[in-house]
């Protein structure tokens, strides 16, 4: 591909619509100086055909034309899902306010009165091409961010987030939530025996299952931590039943993980059991970082304790605290019955960087009753 071909592909694509050949020639000459790719149409019908076959970046549109006038052309462009975002600049000898108001009412972004001034046409075209490019950049970025965030939270949370101001979502604040940590037991030792490709495949397969469980439980996958992860329940959106959600998710995670291990073992693929720790309580949550990189997370004692409990959990075990159990039982909806968990005391434990001794309990899903 030659340099000139690349330049032509990058050049703005402008459709000029006017029933007077002299005007088309004049405008084309003005805009070619700005390295624009110019297409001409001498009627409204031909303009619509040209736009549909190859959507332009911008339309310069005369108003007074035989057959279909410029207003109708603009209306039809704006009614087409594929063409409605194309900026339309009206060109006309009509300089009455009512004509300009009508032009903006049908979707025009600007209005240039004949006779044309070279500098004015070029300046307004440049402005609207720049605005269109900026708008498309923001749309692409928003789509990327939406796709990226959708891999950490459920589709329902993404939809809710779209309705909230960014400042409300990211500000640091104190709130009640439940923090869950999960970590593969003995994976570091196992990883030393695997190829890099096997390590990557194992972790990707494991996290695929984990993300699904967290999302189905209404939680936020806060971050991946090597062969483990941290999840939040009750943020970024408040959930009165965050503790119960987290306990249910922990049970679901262990059940899904056992199924994952059975499947991989049958196929001769590497796998390790999972330990989980979760704690409910007041913590600080929000975004922090630098101008170039931000992170949304929770900070404080609750996070540290959940991490320590995860580290202390045996293979296949879920550890928590009596306060978390009480929070889960209190937030059970009326009529929903008690939480379907059994809790077994593990005694008091000492953890690094946790001053007080912590009473720890283990969570087990209750077997359904029969008869």
Brief summary of the model shown:
With 371 residues, this protein is an alpha/beta fold.
Descriptive labels:
about 375 residues; Rossmann fold; 5-stranded parallel beta sheet; 2 domains; alpha/beta; 8-stranded mixed beta sheet; about 25% strand; single chain; Alpha-Beta Plaits; elongated
Please describe what this structure looks like:
There is one protein chain. With 371 residues, the chain is of the alpha/beta class. The protein folds into two domains: 3-148, Response regulator (Rossmann fold), CATH 3.40.50; 154-365, Nucleotide cyclase, GGDEF domain (Alpha-Beta Plaits, 2-Layer Sandwich). Helices cover 45% and strands 24% of the residues. It is built from 13 helices and 13 strands. It has helices at 3-10, 21-32, 44-53, 70-79, 97-105, 118-150, 155-162, 166-170, 187-191, 196-216, 242-266, 301-312, 322-330, and strands spanning 13-17, 37-41, 58-62, 88-92, 110-113, 173-184, 220-224, 228-233, 274-289, 294-299, 318-320, 341-349, 358-365. Strands 6, 7, 8, 9, 10, 11, 12 and 13 form an eight-stranded mixed sheet that branches. Strands 2-1-3-4-5 form a five-stranded parallel sheet, with helices on both faces. Helix 3 packs parallel to helix 4 (70-79), helix 10 runs antiparallel to helix 11 and helix 11 (242-266) packs across helix 13 (322-330). Mean pLDDT is 85; it is low at 1-8 and 334-338.
Which helices and strands appear, and what pairs or packs with what?
Layout: H1 3-10, E1 13-17, H2 21-32, E2 37-41, H3 44-53, E3 58-62, H4 70-79, E4 88-92, H5 97-105, E5 110-113, H6 118-150, H7 155-162, H8 166-170, E6 173-184, H9 187-191, H10 196-216, E7 220-224, E8 228-233, H11 242-266, E9 274-289, E10 294-299, H12 301-312, E11 318-320, H13 322-330, E12 341-349, E13 358-365
Parallel strand pairs: 1-2, 1-3, 3-4, 4-5, 9-11
Antiparallel strand pairs: 6-8, 6-9, 7-8, 9-10, 11-13, 12-13
């Amino acid at each position: 591909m030659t340099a000139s071909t690349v330049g032509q592909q990058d050049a703005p694509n402008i459709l000029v619509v006017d029933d007077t050949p002299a005007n088309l020639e004049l405008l084309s000459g003005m805009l070619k100086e700005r390295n624009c790719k110019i297409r001409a149409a001498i009627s409204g019908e031909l303009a619509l055909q040209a736009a549909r076959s190859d959507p332009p970046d911008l339309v310069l549109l005369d108003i007074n034309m035989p057959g279909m006038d410029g207003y109708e052309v603009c209306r039809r462009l704006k009614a087409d899902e594929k063409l409605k975002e194309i900026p339309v600049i009206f060109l006309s000898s009509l300089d009455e306010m009512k004509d300009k108001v009508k032009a903006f009412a049908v979707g025009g972004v600007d209005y240039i009165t004949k006779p044309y001034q070279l500098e004015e046409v070029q300046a307004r075209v440049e402005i609207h091409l720049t605005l269109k490019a900026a708008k498309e950049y923001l749309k692409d970025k928003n789509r990327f961010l939406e796709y990226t965030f959708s891999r950490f939270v459920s589709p329902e949370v993404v939809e809710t987030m779209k309705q909230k101001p960014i400042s409300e979502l990211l500000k640091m604040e104190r709130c009640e939530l439940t923090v869950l940590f999960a970590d593969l037991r003995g994976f570091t030792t196992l990883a030393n025996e695997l190829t890099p490709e096997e390590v990557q495949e194992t972790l990707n397969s494991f996290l695929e299952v984990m993300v699904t469980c967290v999302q189905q439980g209404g939680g936020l996958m806060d971050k991946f931590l090597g062969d483990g992860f941290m999840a939040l329940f009750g943020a970024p959106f408040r959930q009165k039943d965050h503790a119960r959600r987290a306990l249910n998710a922990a049970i679901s995670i262990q059940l899904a993980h056992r199924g994952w291990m059975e499947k991989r073992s049958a196929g001769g693929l590497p796998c390790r059991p999972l330990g989980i720790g979760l704690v409910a309580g007041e913590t600080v949550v929000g975004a922090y970082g630098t101008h170039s990189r931000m992170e949304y997370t929770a900070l404080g004692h609750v996070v540290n304790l959940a991490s320590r409990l995860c580290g202390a959990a045996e293979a296949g075990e879920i550890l928590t605290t009596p306060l978390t159990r009480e929070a889960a039982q209190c937030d059970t909806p009326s009529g929903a019955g008690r939480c379907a968990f059994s809790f077994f005391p593990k005694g008091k434990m000492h953890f690094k960087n946790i001053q007080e001794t912590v009473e720890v309990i283990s969570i087990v899903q209750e077997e359904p009753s029969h008869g």
